[in-house]
Each structure stands twice: as structure tokens, then as C-alpha cells.
Design goal:
single chain; about 375 residues; mainly alpha; Hypothetical protein af1432; 2 domains; about 0% strand; binds magnesium ion
Length: about 375
């Protein structure tokens, strides 16, 4: 139970829309605490440690991984949630689960897998995160997946095409009707963006792909950097950068709390359903901070994600994913038995699309290093076959 009284527009664990497979309520925890705990104990969560955010795992021990990224997102999310008297446990559950469906090798891996799947319904990491918690985790005897509450699943499914939404029942309805998720889900979204923009600056500097001079093109960096250097002229750059990142996160989080509070006061939602029908996202950055944040995002797109060293790694990673997919599609007998069993469970009538989906699930679940090892195992006769 939260230490403070939840706002009337918060998600209420005792009024959750519930789980697909009904279960008795937990004795000592709320429903959303249970969801958070189930995410932490699942295998896909542990694998996040060895999945790329921007830098591939073996490039260095100092860079963010999907796991540390998810923990940073949860930290930022909880701060905003508490300040707005929203349910912290739900925010944390969504934040920790939001990247569970990511492929190995970050966006390069997702891009490659989406292309491989273009004739079979495509591949989208948000949808895959939901698939992990709904279907793919095999952890409990009574049901597939983690059987999370509606609100956690609503938060995990950030985007969804109308074509796919139709098949998702109640969860897909908002994408057809133009509704919004609860404020806890909106917080997870914005916390994700704040986390990655800031840690990518940090990691980009650490890797030597970005320089402070170059970053000072962005107003948000320029302003904070000048004040940090003015205050601590004698400190080495690394410590100044740490302080820069800290101040930028603080600036953005403070702005989200103030702006969202004003939005909530203006709209006066009386319940989570009012939030869902509000017609605009109430959790937001203000105009000034929003523009600065967007400028930074665009800077990173141009200068970090397009950097030739990041692009080289992405190129190699895409090739591994494509090769694995093509090899397994053509020779499903090379797949581990558990994966073959999933293919056969679909029956003959499912054909190529079903086989492709099972293979995409298998590849998406891989860590960076597992994907590289698997590539060796099916290609190089000198490697062990298992
Ligand atoms: Mg993320």
C-alpha cells in the first residue's frame, strides 16, 4: 500500500479490471505489487542484462544495458508517480516490463526482424513485450505468461496498429476508439524518453562518440553545462558530466511534475476512466522543456545513432538476425526441440506464418551474445552444435 493517499484519478489496485485468468488476491501485497514482482522474477527480465541499449554488451562494462535502462526508467517513473500521488507499484511494473520484448542488438535487431517478418504480420517490440508477459513466459502451472492485470498490460502496450488492435479485445479498444491509457502508463512513457536521452548523452561521451562542445549545440546541455562549469571550474570533466546528467534529469522530471499537475488541475479527472477519456495526455513536459528535450533527441538521432561506429555494429547485428531467421525458416530441424515443439503445436494448417512467428519469438528472446553464439553454432562446423 502506498505511504500516501492516492489521488482519485490514480489507478486503484483494489479496483483493477483484473487478470485474464482469475486468481485470489495476494495477502500482503497489492495487485500491482504482485505484477511488479512477477516481472522481476521472469526469465525475460534477467535476459535484459545482456541485451543492447545502444552499445553492444561486449563493447564495455560501463554502458547501459536494457536492464540498467529499465531500472533507470523505473526510478524516474516512481519519482513522478509519488509527486502526483499515483500508484508507484504500477508505474514500476510497467517500467520494468516495457522493454521485455526487445530483440538482441537494440533497434538494429528489431529493424531486421521486422523486415524478416514483413509477409507474416511484422515484428514490433511493444507488441512483443506484451506477448512475453501474456504468452511466452512459462512460469506458472495454471496459465501461460505472467497473467498480469489489465492496467499493467495497458501500460506495456504503448503503440499498436488498428489492424492488430482488433485482435487484442478489451486491451486493443483504446487504439480503435482513440482513448488514452491511465496516468501511470503515461508516466512510464515519458520516463523512458527522459532516461534514454540522458543516458545516451552519458554513454556517447564515455565512448568518445560525442564531445561536450558538440553537445552544447543543444540548449538544454548548453545551459546546464555552463552553470556546472561556473560552479566547479576545477573539477575533471568526467565529474562535471555526471553533474550535468543529474541536473538535466532533475530539470526534466521537475518540469513533468509541474506541467502534469497543472494539466490535471485544468482537466480535473475524477477517476482513471476520466483520464482515459481526457482527449490529451495529461502527463507531459511544458512547452519550453519539451522543445529542449526534442532538440536533444534530434541531436542524438543525427550524431550518436548515425555515428559510423554505431552504424557498423548495427550493420553486423542486422546481418546476424537476418541469417538466423532465414536459416531457421528454411531448416526448422536445426531449432532446439522446445522451439520445434511450439511450431508443431500450431498444426499443419498454420503453415509459414506460424513457423515464422515462433522463430521470431525465439530470436527476439535471445541476448546479444546468445545470438552471436547461435549464429556460430549453425554456421561454423568447428563450433559445438549446442
Ligand atoms: Mg525503453
Amino acid at each position: 500500500m502506498a505511504q500516501y493517499e492516492l489521488a482519485p484519478y490514480a489507478a486503484r489496485a483494489d479496483r483493477s479490471r483484473g487478470r485474464v485468468y482469475p486468481e485470489p488476491a495476494p495477502e500482503f501485497r497489492t495487485q500491482y505489487q504482485r505484477d511488479r514482482d512477477r516481472v522481476i522474477h521472469c526469465a525475460a527480465f534477467r535476459r535484459l542484462e545482456y541485451k543492447t541499449q545502444v552499445f553492444v554488451n561486449h563493447e564495455g562494462d560501463m554502458f547501459r544495458t536494457r536492464l540498467t535502462h529499465s531500472i533507470e526508467v523505473a526510478q524516474i517513473g516512481r519519482t513522478i508517480a509519488r509527486a502526483l500521488r499515483l500508484d508507484e507499484d504500477l508505474v514500476e511494473a510497467v517500467c520494468l516490463a516495457h522493454d521485455l520484448g526487445h530483440t538482441p542488438f537494440g533497434h538494429a535487431g528489431q529493424h531486421a526482424l521486422n523486415e524478416c517478418m514483413k509477409d507474416f504480420g511484422g515484428f514490433e517490440h511493444n507488441l512483443q513485450s506484451l506477448r512475453v508477459v501474456d504468452v511466452l513466459e512459462e512460469k506458472y502451472p495454471g496459465f501461460p505468461g505472467l497473467n498480469l492485470t489489465f492496467e499493467t498490460r495497458e501500460g506495456i502496450l504503448k503503440h499498436c496498429s488498428k489492424a492488430v488492435a482488433g485482435a487484442l479485445g478489451e486491451l486493443g479498444r483504446r487504439f480503435l476508439a482513440g482513448g488514452l491509457p491511465g496516468l501511470e502508463a503515461q508516466i512510464a512513457n515519458i520516463a523512458d524518453e527522459i532516461a534514454y536521452n540522458n543516458h545516451d548523452v552519458d554513454d556517447g561521451l564515455r565512448a568518445g562518440l560525442l564531445s561536450i562542445e558538440q553537445l552544447c549545440e543543444c540548449r538544454i546541455i548548453n545551459e546546464q553545462w555552463e552553470s556546472v562549469v561556473r560552479e566547479w571550474p576545477q573539477l575533471p570533466q568526467r565529474r562535471l558530466v555526471n553533474e550535468l546528467i543529474r541536473r538535466m534529469i532533475d530539470y526534466l522530471v521537475t518540469d513533468v511534475v509541474r506541467t502534469s499537475r497543472a494539466n490535471i488541475e485544468e482537466t480535473r479527472p475524477g477517476s482513471i476512466d476520466d483520464v482515459r477519456a481526457a482527449g490529451r495526455e495529461l502527463i507531459a513536459l511544458g512547452k519550453e522543456a519539451g522543445a529542449r528535450h526534442l532538440e536533444l533527441k534530434r541531436f542524438l538521432n543525427r550524431n550518436l545513432y548515425q555515428h559510423y561506429r554505431v552504424q557498423r555494429m548495427a550493420f553486423k547485428a542486422e546481418r546476424v538476425v537476418r541469417k538466423l531467421f532465414a536459416t531457421f525458416m528454411e531448416h526448422p530441424r536445426l531449432l532446439p526441440e522446445t522451439v520445434q515443439t511450439r511450431i508443431h503445436a500450431g498444426g499443419k494448417e498454420h503453415g509459414d506464418a506460424h513457423r515464422a512467428r515462433v522463430i521470431a519469438d525465439y530470436i527476439a528472446g535471445m541476448t546479444d551474445r546468445y545470438a552471436m553464439a547461435e549464429d556460430d553454432r549453425v554456421r561454423d562446423p568447428r563450433e559445438s552444435a549446442f
